[in-house]
Amino acid sequence: MLAPNLDLLAWSDKTKKVGKYPYIAVFKKDGKTLVYLASEHSAQKTFEMVDFAFAKFQPGVAVVEYKNKRFAIPLSGKGYFHESVYTAAVAARNNIPVVLADIGYSEEACKRAYELSGNAEWTIKAFYLRWIITNMLLHERQFGTKTTLAKEIKNFTSIIYKDWMGVPLTEDEIKELFKSEFGVDFDPMNLAEVLPRGWKTPKESGTIINRFCNYADYYARDPFMIQNITNALNKYDVVFAVFGEGHYRTQRLVLEDMMGTPEYIWGAE
């Protein structure tokens, strides 16, 4: 039985790119094959490599970077907006089971980041702020209307909040935290403009949200992904895993220790 050594996980900001992505890493050991697509999220090249992997390797199972509760998100006008959804669709057409192997930046991931960081309160603040901002942006994208900070605080408190998170942040505290991290006043009308390139605006080193994501990846998401990949390998001979390239870099040493050095495919050959 294969077993991962999670002590070999790397912090995402301490890794180097293996090569231009998306790419496929093919691991083989004792009759088992792991086909790992290190994806560029939602890129056409990634979709092409999904098709290539199914045709060439004929996997028995697909393990993807997606939470089951997010499957309700509608597709965009361009079709499949994420390669994990596309992978699941191709697998379904071929009667291949799919494992949704991500807990995302959920309250579970927050709790692990909080506990394993020595109960650092900043992790909860970052989770809170990220959840509020993400929900406000998704609400506008999905419904075409603006929501309010007060409404999203209420949603967080009723849906997400747990006692271990301490006293919930107030509206003023969220606005103060936002300005300290992003350098501008909180304005729901301009959130998309403040975050055109993600969470790192305007600090080159990133915000506490970047730090939280690193902690959540290292302590929660990547271990969960690897364990699901391992479970699939112990049951199926050929496993197709589809995760963002950053996750591959953090997991690479664990996978190499468990499966040996892979061969790389740098394009849909």
Fraction in helix: 40-55%
Number of domains: 2
Distance between the termini: 32 Å
Order of strands across the main sheet: 4-3-5-2-1-6
Spans with pLDDT under 50 lasting ≥5 residues? 70-78
What number is the mean pLDDT?
89
Q: What share of residues are in beta strands?
A: 5-15%
Radius of gyration: 19 Å
Total helices: the number is 9
Q: Structural class of the secondary structure composition?
A: alpha/beta
User: Topology as H/E string?
Assistant: EEHEHEHHHHHHEHE
Number of strands: 6
Shape: globular
Largest sheet: 6 strands, mixed
Summed up, what is this model?
It is built from nine helices and six strands, in the order E-E-H-E-H-E-H-H-H-H-H-H-E-H-E. The protein has 269 residues and is of the alpha/beta class.
Which helices and strands appear, and what pairs or packs with what?
Blueprint: E1 23-29, E2 32-39, H1 44-57, E3 61-64, H2 83-93, E4 98-100, H3 107-116, H4 121-143, H5 149-160, H6 171-182, H7 191-194, H8 208-233, E5 238-244, H9 245-259, E6 263-265
Parallel strand pairs: 2-5, 3-4, 3-5
Antiparallel strand pairs: 1-2, 1-6
